[in-house]
């Protein structure tokens, strides 16, 4: 029997209601949140699954605490956005200015009906189906005066204060030693526009992981929601298989 815990990252969905005003949607606090959840649940070993930015958080957590992770599933994501060391000053400056401009309590605009909220979400995410959009809006929108407002915090769109460099990310990847399944959507940027740096890092992950499996599925970035049957069987088979005891 399997216990499944599903979490929302900082500033996403309803989590912004419990997030301090000056909190940024950075990866280190989200990695820390995973560890806090593990400790609270008393788990010594568990499998970790993440999609998109959640995949980056999952990879970073696994590299930080490899002793706790038995299996890692990366859904259309793997490594975080990165920057070279010489861009650190510009990155910090841009982030502070962006967060300062948005710190006045600005909220998402109100949509008059749920249908209008669905249309706006689909316009911003053309790869979503209507059914997936409605599923996201179950926690992604809330009734308010005049209609519906998106619950996510607008700070999620602001640039991070710091980004890891390629070598810093590699230091995490080198400690990912569990079994890894990576599912890539054929219409996503991870498949169509992957950079050389990210390609090198995925190759490094293949070398360090106990076992590594790459599965490509037809669909867009949200294929796991749009077409669960295309993704679910691969994930289920991977998670239900006995862990490999040694890397060959």
Blueprint (SSEs and pairs):
Layout: H1 27-41, E1 46-51, H2 53-64, E2 69-75, H3 88-101, E3 110-111, H4 114-124, H5 130-140, E4 141-144, E5 147-150, H6 166-173, E6 179-185, H7 189-192, H8 196-208, E7 211-217, H9 223-226, H10 228-240
Helix pairs in contact: 1-2, 2-6, 4-5, 6-8
State the assembly state of the protein chains. Answer: single chain
The SSE order reads: HEHEHEHHEEHEHHEHH
Helix % is 40-55%
Q: What spatial form do the alpha-carbon principal axes imply? A: globular
Q: Could you please describe the fold and organization of this structure?
A:
The protein is α/β, with parallel strands linked by helices and 248 residues long. The mean pLDDT is 87. It is 42% helix and 15% strand. The chain has 10 helices and 7 strands. The chain is globular and about 55 Å long. Strand 4 and strand 5 form a beta hairpin. The strands form 2 sheets. The chain has a 4-stranded parallel beta sheet, with helices on both faces.
Characterize this entry briefly.
The chain has helices at residues 27-41, 53-64, 88-101, 114-124, 130-140, 166-173, 189-192, 196-208, 223-226, 228-240, and strands spanning 46-51, 69-75, 110-111, 141-144, 147-150, 179-185, 211-217. By secondary structure, it is α/β, with parallel strands linked by helices.
Keywords:
248 residues; globular; four-stranded parallel beta sheet; alpha/beta; 15% strand; single chain; three-stranded antiparallel beta sheet; 7 strands
């Amino acid at each position: 029997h399997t216990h499944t815990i599903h979490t929302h990252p900082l500033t996403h969905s309803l989590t912004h209601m419990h997030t301090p005003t000056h909190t940024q949607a950075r990866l280190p606090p989200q990695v820390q949140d995973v560890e806090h959840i593990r400790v609270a649940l008393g788990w010594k070993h568990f499998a970790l699954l993440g999609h998109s930015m959640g995949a980056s958080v999952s990879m970073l957590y696994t590299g930080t605490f490899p002793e706790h992770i038995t299996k890692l599933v990366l859904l259309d994501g793997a490594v975080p956005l990165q920057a070279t060391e010489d861009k650190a000053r510009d990155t910090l400056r841009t982030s502070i200015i962006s967060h300062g401009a948005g710190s006045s309590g600005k909220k998402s605009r109100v949509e008059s009906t749920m249908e209008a909220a669905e249309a706006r979400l689909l316009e911003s995410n053309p790869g979503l189906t209507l059914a997936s959009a409605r599923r996201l809006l179950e926690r992604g929108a809330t009734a308010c005066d005049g209609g519906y407002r998106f619950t996510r915090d607008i700070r999620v769109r602001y640039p991070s204060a710091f980004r890891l460099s390629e070598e810093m990310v590699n230091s995490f990847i080198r400690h990912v030693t569990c079994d890894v399944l990576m599912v890539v959507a054929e219409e996503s940027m991870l498949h169509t526009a992957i950079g050389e740096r990210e390609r090198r890092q995925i190759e490094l992950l293949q070398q360090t992981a106990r076992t590594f499996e790459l599965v490509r599925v037809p669909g867009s970035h949200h294929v796991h929601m749009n077409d669960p049957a295309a993704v679910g069987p691969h994930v289920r088979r991977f998670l239900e298989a006995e862990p490999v005891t040694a890397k060959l």
